[in-house]
Amino acid sequence: xxxxxxxxxxxxxxxxxxPVFTAIFNQTFTDFHVVAVISGNDDGGKELLMEKxxxxxxxxxxxxxxxAAGHNMVFEKYDSEFFxxxxxxxxxxxxxxxxxxxxxxxxxxxxxxxxLYQFNDLKFKIEDFRNNTTLDTTGVTISKSGRAxxxxxxxxxxxxxxxxxxxxxxxxAGPMYRRSTLQATSYQLPAKKEYFDEDFHSYWEDVDLxxxxxxxxxxxxxxxxxxxxxxxxxxxxxxxxTDVLGFIKHHRHLSPRVLQLNYKNHIFMYVKNSPWFYPxxxxxxxxxxxxxxxxxxxxxxxLLQFFRQFPLIWKKRKLIQVP
Length: 323
Known about the structure:
Layout: E1 4-11, H1 14-25, E2 32-40, H2 45-52, E3 57-59, H3 67-77, E4 82-85, E5 90-92, H4 96-102, E6 109-118, H5 126-129, E7 135-137, E8 140-142, E9 148-150, E10 165-167, E11 176-178, H6 179-184, E12 187-188, E13 193-194, H7 205-215, E14 219-230, H8 244-252, H9 256-273, H10 279-295, H11 303-320
Parallel strand pairs: 1-2, 1-4, 2-3, 6-14
Antiparallel strand pairs: 4-11, 5-14, 6-7, 6-11, 8-9, 10-14, 12-13
Helix pairs in contact: 1-2, 7-9, 9-11
């Protein structure tokens, strides 16, 4: 079995396939294989992938399995020492995997992220991407209110994040996980084992997983020498809550389904992982609810699912024994 399994869950991402997979197979580290889970194929991406990159293992469940369950399927099926996730719109520099692996020489490191930049140019010329200095993520910070933010997102890179350091959690755009850490922080449920929480389906399951790892004593590490370029479909508004109009404008570009999952899952993530229920959390949620009632009433359609899933989410909090 190769040392690294590279994983991608594809949901109608045909336009990204050639540049993204070309970058994967141009890696200086070569002891890996690639698995693609087809979560949506309305655009024929699966057929293009089979034609251009026949060496990729393809898993096609035949429906939108979601980010969480799609990756869990691969984590359970393959027994590589490490798993490198690559979002469908993430282009890696050739030394990305090589530099990520170096961080795992410390056996207490469970998850690693590189320095990811944003891109908006759909021509996919790597030479153009290298001129982009707007950061996408250098790890994730989490406040007492439960607000999780990609460190440095939307900032111009002035080498302020050029030091390797521990972070609380890591984005799911391009992380690498140690297999033994995934096993140690998984949920053994009656019917199956979960690594990413499948009650999330998509959104915030990445931060939930690595926050859980941090709580369990594993290190999450940012490695600036591993560089990639991320198209990111959602992300945060540039100034967050300090710019209300900008926040509203940003949310209006997101689909109702994304907004619903975002609302439900950010609460679940906090309930499961925060050691205390800080007053800041309740204050933030009060204002978030007011915002939803005024500007985003369709988001409340997720409440039925929220209350149906909440008892299991609370059970999972107890399973992981939050400190």
